[in-house]
């Protein structure tokens, strides 16, 4: 599933492609929004909150999309073959005279009034990449992290009600960076350890965004995620994989049994 860093890059790309020009083509291939007419409206920006995208229009409406497991947005020159958007996997088309954005395999799509965006986001924790995270967001996220003290860290970090934007990749990489056993009860951490863990997640994701801006994609070397059976970059121990959550909601947890061995607390 795309995580907050990918969503941030996607939002920036959509903003760069669509902002300031009227939509000459707008198709929402979604049962609840198919009759909506967006043609003529101008996109002001696309923002990201956690794993949610919010394309705001000058007529007071917002197009909300969520990529779920396989979704993505592509941008092509208007008039090009790829911009024709004939593929049935495309669920949304937004086009100006210059660029056409196509939403593929979207998991959620809603059209709502901009001032009602809180209805979509109200159940989420602070956005780990939000501008206010270091000030107001971080203390809130720490409180949410330890709210259920017996909950394993790997489960707590994946819960978007704790902090929005972290998925299996940055959960695993953040815990590895802090040398924390993934199934440590959240309540066993000190306040400083909680702050350090969440700051680390933000730092790693900010780095991914910076790399993505330079290279055109979010691609940084992973230390544990997706490396099951391969040697740890620190100690050489084969990377293991466990799971967070119960079926059918389980998610893989990659970790090093040496660097992240459980410690008495």
From TrEMBL:
Keywords: DNA damage, DNA repair, DNA-binding, Glycosidase, Hydrolase, Lyase, Metal-binding, Multifunctional enzyme, Zinc, Zinc-finger
UniProt protein name: DNA-(apurinic or apyrimidinic site) lyase
EC number of this enzyme: 4.2.99.18
Ranges of residues in domain Formamidopyrimidine-DNA glycosylase catalytic: 2-89
Family assignment from sequence similarity: Belongs to the FPG family.
Keyword Cell division: no
Pfam family for this entry, one: Fapy_DNA_glyco
Source taxon at top rank: Bacteria
SMART domains on file: Fapy_DNA_glyco, H2TH
Organism the protein comes from: Promicromonospora vindobonensis
EC supergroup of this enzyme: lyase
Cross-referenced Gene3D superfamilies: 1.10.8.50, MutM-like, N-terminal
Catalytic activity line of the entry: 2'-deoxyribonucleotide-(2'-deoxyribose 5'-phosphate)-2'-deoxyribonucleotide-DNA = a 3'-end 2'-deoxyribonucleotide-(2,3-dehydro-2,3-deoxyribose 5'-phosphate)-DNA + a 5'-end 5'-phospho-2'-deoxyribonucleoside-DNA + H(+)
Keyword Nucleus: no
Residue span(s) of domain FPG-type: 223-261
């Amino acid at each position: 599933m795309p995580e907050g860093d990918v969503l941030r890059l996607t939002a920036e790309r959509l903003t760069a492609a669509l902002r300031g020009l009227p939509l000459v083509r707008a198709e929402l291939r979604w049962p609840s929004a198919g009759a909506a007419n967006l043609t003529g409206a101008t996109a002001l920006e696309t923002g990201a909150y956690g794993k949610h995208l919010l394309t705001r229009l000058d007529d007071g409406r917002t197009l909300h999309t969520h990529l779920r497991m396989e979704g993505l947005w592509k941008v092509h020159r208007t008039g090009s073959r790829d911009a024709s958007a004939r593929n049935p996997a495309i669920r949304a088309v937004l086009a100006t005279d210059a660029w056409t954005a196509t939403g593929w395999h979207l998991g959620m799509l809603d059209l709502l009034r901009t001032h009602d965006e809180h209805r979509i986001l109200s159940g989420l924790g602070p956005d780990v990449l939000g501008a206010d995270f270091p000030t107001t967001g971080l203390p809130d996220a720490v409180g949410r992290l330890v709210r259920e003290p017996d909950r394993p860290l790997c489960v707590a970090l994946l819960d978007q009600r704790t902090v929005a934007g972290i998925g299996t990749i940055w959960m695993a990489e953040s815990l590895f960076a802090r040398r924390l056993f993934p199934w440590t009860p959240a309540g066993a951490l000190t306040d400083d350890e909680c702050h350090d863990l969440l700051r680390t997640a933000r730092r790693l994701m900010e780095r991914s965004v910076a790399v993505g801006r330079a290279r055109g994609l979010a691609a940084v070397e992973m230390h544990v995620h997706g490396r099951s059976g391969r040697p740890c970059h620190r100690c050489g121990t084969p990377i293991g994989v466990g799971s967070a959550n119960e079926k059918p909601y389980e998610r893989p947890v990659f970790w090093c049994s040496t660097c992240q061995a459980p410690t008495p607390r």
